[in-house]
Amino acid sequence: MGRTRLLALAISVSLVGCTSGPQPGDNGRAGEALPTHATAAPGQMAYHGGPVMHGTFNVYYVWYGNWSSNTAGSILTDLASNIGGSPYYNINTTYTDEIGPVSTSVKFAGAVNDNYSHGSKLTDDDVFGIVSDAITGNQLPRDRNAMYFVLSSADVRESSGFCSAYCGWHNHGYLGPTDIKYSFVGNPDTQCPAECEFQTATSPNDNPGADAMASTIARELAATATDYDLNAWFDDMQQENADECVGVYDDQFTAPNGSIANVRLGSRNYLLQSIWINSDGGMCGSHYP
């Protein structure tokens, strides 16, 4: 499984990237790798015996860096507060383990600010360190049924390949006995709008960086729900459910500000990348059923 693919693709063209990335266990990370303009049919998803997410999936944000005067706070909080039970997130119910399908319940459970505790250039280890610090410092609870997102401001670099190889990624690691699921999602506004922003001039919430992050968050949430320990659902090219539909945005409509959107959550419109629906032979989609 790779990381969240860079998306320097026209949003009106549905492309499915099949660039394979690291396999489960290679480096403990998952997301998507770089796309190419050459496309191939996605592989069928296969179950490899690992767990999927049951019960309420809690979402925590660590706002890393400088987010002052940025509307991302409300845009991305509204996303996490309304994605659970939506037709978009319900796509994940087409994935099961021996207990049953992925639950539709998602809850935004809290957020903290981190004022550059690990500097403005992060490594992958720093990302886990940021999450660990927030938990051990009692800013966020130690929650095994959760996803901790490190959301970095536009001036923060991730040295393992943000903008050059990925727009975001997810991973898991142990903090004591607790299996912690976490993700890095960067704001591409100044570093790589052409690569990681789907719409650079305007976007559904008039914040192209935050709207791009919304799609990456939705992707990583879906991939984690169905493959959080990197041993559950992926295809023979090691691609997770979000990897299968890179560049695909089904059900597009025009938002009130003239931008393109395809999903409405709460009172907001978003443009979220489609996810692989693992039923009836499989297909990319932005809603289920």
At the first level of CATH, what is the class?
Alpha Beta
**How can the largest sheet be summarized?**
6 strands, mixed
Task: Give the DSSP E fraction (strand runs of 2 or more residues).
Answer: 15-25%
Q: Quickly count the domains.
A: 1
Cα-atom Rg, whole angstroms? 17 Å
H/I helix tally: 4
Global geometry? globular
Q: How many beta strands in the DSSP annotation?
A: 16
End-to-end distance: 26 Å
Strand order of the largest sheet: 1-8-9-6-3-4
Class by SSE composition: alpha/beta
Low-confidence stretches: 8-29, 32-41
- Proper CATH architecture: 3-Layer(aba) Sandwich
Residue-averaged pLDDT: 88
Q: Helix coverage percent of residues?
A: 10-25%
Order of helices and strands: EEEHEEHEEEEHHEEEEEEE
Which fold name corresponds to the CATH topology? Answer: Collagenase (Catalytic Domain)
Structure overview:
The chain has 289 residues and is an alpha/beta fold. It contains 4 helices and 16 strands. Strand 15 (275-277) and strand 16 (283-285) form a beta hairpin. Helix 1 runs parallel beside helix 4. The longest helix has 20 residues, at 208-227. Mean pLDDT is 88; it is low at 8-29 and 32-41.
Secondary-structure map with pairings?
Blueprint (H helix, E strand, L loop, with lengths): L28 E3 L14 E2 L9 E8 L7 H11 L23 E9 L6 E2 L1 H13 L9 E7 L4 E2 L9 E8 L2 E9 L6 H4 L11 H20 L5 E2 L18 E2 L5 E2 L1 E3 L2 E3 L4 E3 L5 E3 L4
Parallel strand pairs: 3-4, 3-6, 5-7, 6-9
Antiparallel strand pairs: 1-8, 2-10, 8-9, 11-12, 13-14, 15-16
Helix pairs in contact: 1-4
